[in-house]
Amino acid sequence: MKLISGPMATISHPAFRILIEKFGACDEYFTEMINAGTLLTGGQFEKFYIDPSPVPEKVVWQLTGHDAENMKRAAALLCALPGLGLDINMGCSAPDIYRYGAGIAWMLKPREETEEMVKGVRRVVEEWNKTCSPEMKKRFSVKLRLGDDNFTDDDFFSFCDMLVSNGVELLTLHPRTKKEKLTRPARYYYCQKVCGRFPGLPVYLNGNVKDYASLKNALAAAPSVQGVMISRACVEKPWIFSELKAVLEGSQPVKQKVNMKELSLSYISDIEKYQPVEFWKTRLQRFFTYFCQNFKFAHYAQTQFLNAKDNEDLRQKIEDFFEKCPEEVEKEL
What we know:
By secondary structure, the protein is an alpha/beta fold. The protein is 48% helix and 14% strand. It has an eight-stranded parallel barrel. Strands 10-11 form a two-stranded antiparallel sheet. Strand 8, helix 10 (212-221) and strand 9 (227-230) form a beta-alpha-beta unit. Helix 4 packs parallel to helix 7.
């Protein structure tokens, strides 16, 4: 069973992968969405999106865009980078992404248009794999949802048939519709149905796994999946993969102590190293929105950290917080 760090805007970058690697046990890292058009035009920030540090062999490049030709050309650029695979995002339902014609919009466009795009990207990946060295070969995958709110089983499974018949080698399913929010229970049994429809095809489950109890619930409904993708929960608890891996392997998680102050400060330093200054504030705010949930006085910590004027102010607010709450400095996991 693989455990995968899911794609998250402003989170899935080298600094976050460095943090997860400190605790180990994550098998794959999906990047945040890389926009095909911006990648092709050489946007000033694109070099930060395509940095595979610190574990290139675990990185899956996630591609998004609304234009099939740009998707193909961008796929060629991503194939030439180190990494495990290339993934097309057909699951993001954020309004700005959907209206742009990307993400889940590919599930709702005329089938012929989406199929032509998939065929084109597949051909790019196949041609690359024919000529590259073995360690540079790329897996071709798609991350998707169930479809629009009025989806039918026939429509959903025929869409999956189209993907697999056109060379998609792995499917990651977030079993919710376009408008369903996270408060709606994920329908994990659809992941199991996909496994049954395509024996031998790896299927990853995504949605609401945040601890062993929720993992057990998900696997009870979809026991045949080969991987579980975790997103928000691994921002709050970067050690979650090592905990779940130990349980899945039949052992007890190793007790360890984490210095939360050092972890917080080192994350700021890694953001400064691997992200442009224009991104520092938003990426740190997004991270601490989740990570502060570890603290007894979570709301106070969030308010202080998220309202910092700049990184030096944030460092000082972190120092002040742990001085006022010394019991929060070291956590035993």
